[in-house]
Amino acid sequence: MYRKLIKPLLFSLTIERAHRVALLLLRGIGLIPGGLWLLRKCYAVKHSALEREVFGIRFPNPVGLAAGFDRNGEALRPLSALGFGFVEIGTVTPRPQAGNPRPRVFRLPKDRAIVNRIGIANRGLDATVRHLRRGHEGILVGCNIGKNTDTPPENAPADYLRLFRNLYQYADYFTVNISCDNACHDEKTYTRGHLLSILDPLFDFRRGQSEYRPVMLKISPDLSDEEIDRVTDVLMSTPLDGIVASNGSHGSRQGLRTSRTSLDKIGSGRLSGAPLTRRAAEIVRRIRTRSGGTYPIIGAGGLMSPDDVRAMLDAGADLVQIYTGFVYEGPGFAGDICRALIADAERAAQAQAAVPVQNTASDAPAGPNSSAGPDTPSGTDAAAGMTTEQQARLPQEPATKA
Ligand SMILES: Cc1cc2nc3c(=O)[nH]c(=O)nc-3n(C[C@H](O)[C@H](O)[C@H](O)COP(=O)(O)O)c2cc1C
Fold this sequence. Notes:
By secondary structure, the chain is of the alpha/beta class. Helix content is 39%, strand content 15%. Helix 11 links the parallel strand 12 and strand 13. Helix 6 (156-167) packs parallel to helix 7, helix 8 packs across helix 10 and helix 10 packs parallel to helix 11. The radius of gyration is 20 Å and the shape is globular. The protein starts with a helix and ends in a 10-residue tail after the last helix. The structure holds flavin mononucleotide. The site of flavin mononucleotide has 28 residues, from strand 4, strand 6, strand 11 and helix 12. Residues 50-342 form the Dihydroorotate dehydrogenase catalytic domain. GO terms for molecular function: dihydroorotate dehydrogenase (quinone) activity. Its cofactor is FMN. Belongs to the dihydroorotate dehydrogenase family. Type 2 subfamily.
């Protein structure tokens, strides 16, 4: 029904209008008695093989919705009912901002891609708190935070801290977004000093809290290998919990199927979707290798099929996020990925059962992200899904989730 009826209808609208309609539809369905139940029945997939323990949080499945779709947390329940294991809201800025003039988001159907230069349009902190206050029991929510476009660089840390403090009690984890349009990539963005000027105040605030909220850093796919290594070193030497890799790309548009004329007409913006698949997985692999596999990585970028997700998990991601794939594949996409992962797990279990008895379970293959598998890096308490280092960062009192 989605492919035959709803997708052509949505694709006949501009992508921003289609996004608005989709959000309204989802919210509307969420308000009808039985609506959420129906969505869940149609789309969500539950299976113990999908569960993951990452940074101390138990995820029902590893497939999340990436930031930018539900910017202010308006549609958490229906989005979760579509089968996402978690939803990252944002990017939220302290004050509301309108973003860049329209049109500013474009589909590239021949490339299964999107170009956007929205400029972090969002309703701001207060509206987000209002939405989150309604509660989201049973739904894991990440808050992606960023500075206002007109905040001068020297005041950026204050923007991030204000968001972190005010959203702390409502989010399960945070993503610090320094890679988006309004804090664009320059040489300084990924230096240790700049990163810590933003992150340190967040760590200080967290130390005074009774509950622990993991902090992730979202990076651009346009970083050089040297910059990726530098960020990974920050990850390993500070209380930063993990990395979200990656955002859309400002890089080259060589090799796209969309004509040069159309691309010129579209103009600047971040490219996401299929052209990102390979680079995003490479980045995840590089971080994973350098960090020894001990730190959580959320893989994002060009995950357009279950096979792309498998490749991202194989590269070392603990969780994944999708955006463009959701736009092109529709509401059943998270469920499709989950079903493919269940099939993999069942095949692996069958293969393990077929192994002769002397080859004990410890010899059997397990996925690279299986929290209790032999691939579990040393120094990791697999049962808790956290490294010993991360456990040490927990407050004295055992943290309890809201
Ligand atoms: C229209 C659009 C808006 C986005 N807005 C945000 C945003 O506000 N903050 C952010 O961190 N990422 C944003 N992203 C990036 C996505 O979260 C994701 O990292 C990126 O698109 C790569 O994943 P994909 O190839 O599955 O789309 C946006 C992406 C798109 C297409």
